Structures are given as structure tokens and as C-alpha cells.
Amino acid sequence: MQKKYLTIYDDLVDKIKAGIWPVNTLLPSENDLTNRYETSRETIRKALNLLSQNGYIQKVRGKGSIVLDAHKFSFPVSGIVSYKELTKQLNITSNTIVQELSYMETPSALQELVNIEGNVWRAVRIREIDGEKIILDKDYFSEMHVPFPTKEICEDSIYQYIEEELGLTIGFAQKEIVVEEPTKEDYELLSLEGFSNIVVIKSHVYLDDTSLFQYTESRHRPDKFRFIDFARRI
């Protein structure tokens, strides 16, 4: 016999798929669901946790459980894809806001962290989709390899500038994915009301001659993306 929380989970999934609770609306409260299914609050919480784990809802402190779009944007982890290329592949309309474009005043601290040699310039860009600011990209480049660009280049595609104008070949990247509490800057620059965590992809990116030319932190609101990879057992 199936456990009750799984039966409730299946019923909630069916209702979400049927559009009874559309995307970006709230599920009934835990108390309402407890009464509706004539069960304990703990059983309802187990069902809601399973919905959250499988990407149907996002629990937001102070609000409740928000229904998510099951068709989240798929963000490839293993590949090296520019944001412009990604939005084209996903057929989504996006706006890039250049928040900062400057030389690092004290590059030594960063160089110690990421081992970028020479002068370092920094681009901070906000990615806006459907009127919501959901990604904060903080990129650090070696001027030895990538000369300081224009704001227009940063609004369009730095990788396109590197490959087409500079004639360089981007080789590979080492990536780390962590979940962190949002910083004060995250809250100021992104649409994060009600969210208590943020997904951060930290990347060291190299040219094909193994020269490190970029360090980046791409900070994502957790409800809009799923991070995908392809793995093969050897």
C-alpha cells in the first residue's frame, strides 16, 4: 500500500500539471492542505518537500509554496557557452545591464585567489528575463590576453569579442557549483525577494594554450534554472 504522503504528492502533481494552480501562484497553505487531505501536517510537509525536490514548487520564506514552471531553462554545466549563445538556444528574450566595467584597483588579492597574471579588469553584468533580474555575472579578465573592452561589447558578448575580434580560441574551464546565502550585493542587484539561497557557478577559463584568462562567478536565482550535465560510466 502506497504511503499517504506519496498519494498526496501524486495528486498535487496532477493538479499542478492540470493548471489548477498555475505557474507563479501559491499552493494552499499547509493548514489548508492538512484539512483538505484529512491528514497530519507532517504528512503534508513530506509531500511538499518531495514537490520541492522534483522542481514543482519553490518554498519561499514568508510566502509559502510557489508553483514553478516545469520547463526551467537548462543551463549546461560541462560546456562553455556564452550567455548570448544560451539565450539564442533557449529562444528567450533577455536584457543585459552592465553594472560595472573597470580595472581592479587592488588586483593582488584577486591574483592570489585565481592566479591571473598582470592587470585585471572586471565586468559586472545583470541578466534580466521577463522583467526579472535573475543572474549576476561577475567576470575578471587578464588584460594580457583580453584588452579592456567597450560597454557595448559587454552588453553583447565578450566571448564573441574574444573569438571573432581577437582571434583567440577558448579551450576549457574548471567549474565549481555551490549554494550560498545571497550577499547584500545580490539582494541589491537581483530580484531576490523571499529567496534565501543562490546558486553560484565559479569558473576558471583557459585558452587552448592553457593560459588562464578569466575567472567568473555566475550567481543564479534558484527557481529559474536547472543545471544539466552528461555523464558516461567508463
UniProtKB/TrEMBL annotation:
Any one Pfam family match given in the protein's UniProt record, by short name: UTRA
GO biological processes: negative regulation of DNA-templated transcription
Gene Ontology molecular function terms on file: DNA binding; DNA-binding transcription factor activity
Domain of life: Bacteria
InterPro entries, sorted: Bact_HTH_transcr_reg, Chorismate_lyase_/UTRA_dom_sf, TreR, Tscrpt_reg_HTH_GntR, UTRA, WH-like_DNA-bd_sf, WH_DNA-bd_sf
Key words, A-Z: DNA-binding, Transcription, Transcription regulation
Domain HTH gntR-type residues, every copy: 2-70
UniProt-listed PANTHER family: HTH-TYPE TRANSCRIPTIONAL REGULATOR TRER, MANNOSYL-D-GLYCERATE TRANSPORT/METABOLISM SYSTEM REPRESSOR MNGR-RELATED
Name the UniProt record assigns to this protein: Trehalose operon repressor
Source species: Oceanobacillus limi
Taxon lineage: Bacteria, Bacillati, Bacillota, Bacilli, Bacillales
